[in-house]
UniProtKB/TrEMBL annotation:
Compartment list: Endoplasmic reticulum membrane
InterPro entries to which the protein is assigned, alphabetical: Scs7
GO biological process annotation, one example: fatty acid metabolic process
The protein's name: FA_hydroxylase domain-containing protein
Membrane topology summary: Multi-pass membrane protein
GO annotations of cellular component type: endoplasmic reticulum membrane
Keyword Membrane: yes
Major subcellular site: endoplasmic reticulum
Transmembrane segments annotated in the record for this chain: 67-85
Keywords from the UniProt entry: Endoplasmic reticulum, Lipid metabolism, Membrane, Oxidoreductase, Transmembrane, Transmembrane helix
Organism: Cephalotus follicularis
MF-aspect GO terms: fatty acid 2-hydroxylase activity
Length: 134
């Protein structure tokens, strides 16, 4: 329901509501559940995936020093990518219906409800769905 705010959205989204619970995004309980993620889920999901990819690279002949440099380069690249997304995309000024709505869903909710511990990280299932559809 942020569409009607227009140019006032940026000011509104940066006035936090302090409380442990955030807003409900979906009326459907399953869809709502899929938007909530505890922080410990991220390493639990992605560390096995990363370990699998590293093991495949090792089996295909990558030497341990080359593998270590590749992993370090990947960490550096991911850090720079995540910083850039956060700095330039998630903090851009929006004024239109779709831009305000998309910004709120991706990052604005974090500013409006900073104490909502279940929406601090992007849900892994959403990443899988986006990866498969793109």
């Amino acid at each position: 329901q942020v569409d009607h705010l227009g140019e006032a959205y940026d000011k509104w989204v940066h006035q936090p509501i302090v409380g442990k619970e955030g807003p409900r995004f979906f009326a459907n309980d399953l869809c709502e559940f899929l938007t909530l993620t505890k922080c410990w889920v991220i390493p639990m999901v992605w560390l096995p995936v990363k370990s699998f990819v590293v093991s495949i690279s090792f089996r295909r002949g990558l030497t341990p020093p080359h593998l270590a440099m590749t992993v370090a380069g990947g960490i550096l690249l991911w850090t720079l990518l995540e910083y850039s997304l956060h700095r330039f995309l998630f903090h851009m000024k929006t004024t239109t219906y779709w831009a305000n709505t998309l910004h709120y869903l991706l990052h604005g909710c974090h500013h409006k409800h900073p104490m909502d511990a279940l929406r601090l990280v992007f849900p892994p299932l959403a990443i899988v769905i986006l990866s498969v559809t793109v």
